[in-house]
Amino acid sequence: MTVIPVEKKVLSENQRIAASLRDRFEDHGTLCLNLISSPGSGKTTLLEQTLGGFRPEERVAVLTGDLQTENDAKRLARYGFPVQQITTGGVCHLDGKMIERALERWSLDAIDLLFIENVGNLVCPSSYDLGEEAKIVLLSVTEGEDKPLKYPSIFAKSELLVLTKVDLLPHVPFKMEEARANARLVHPGIEILELSCATGQGLEEWRTCLSRRRETALQRICAARA
Amino acid sequence: MHEIGIANSIIEAGQTEAARVAGSKLVRVGIRIGALAGVDCDALRFALTALTQGTELDDVDFEIQSCPRRNRCLDCDEVFVTALYSDPCSRCGSETSVLVGGEELDLAYVEVEEP
To answer: What pLDDT does B84 receive?
Structure first.
């Protein structure tokens, strides 16, 4: 019997692809953000509102993942920006290879801001690096304030938590302060935004947050090139 | 269900590593799974069994070692095991610490029988 030490990441193939995607995003100055949440917490609606707020000449694109249907892509394509649906079949997350394959159809030269709307799932997408600048987790007030404790991995890995559907707060037993505290227990540095796509509350902060991230990323890229 | 995909990656990687010793037979694969890896160890065990049953890999033993979340205290440098969210430092009680372990999803070793 011989024991051969290996010491490799099980997902090292995905890591390799993610690293090459990250290099490509950096080379083209593309800011890539990976949106993750349970099904129905409002990723597509937030993206609709976001795309609706951009001027037509802005260079934004969306890759949207689901197990089945092209429904989200159809909804998002109405805003005139490039959108591609990635239908995973039965797979519960997007992986690096799926992103790489989808990007074969686009030139990153023409994209400054790329949103990836992951498959609705708080568990599996957290294991797969897609080369993104940051993961953003959404949690709607209809879900329960203990989600960060139940699904800590994705909250620990996300830089920003967006609490959605806050217009429903008067009708649901969601304890906002507890939700914030739970998220901070899992990830003390996490940034938190509250918003409602129904009333528009918080959308301005969301847009500011996107521009700030883009600026920071660009500064970093420029500094690295200099 | 993504444990099936991960199990597949483990099996493939195990076979690739074993194939480096020509003619050898894979007998054991050591895997490390962190508490934050988003992988359920029981589901992974089930997936590994389901995928290898009735194949030439039927006898391969998959040894899964679970790794807890570890934080390093920013005040006294102690590395300590914490719950899924941060506990105070076990040595000095400070509440400022950073994650240093618990995200493992590693193939640690393979054991082979040589020809």
So the answer is: 64
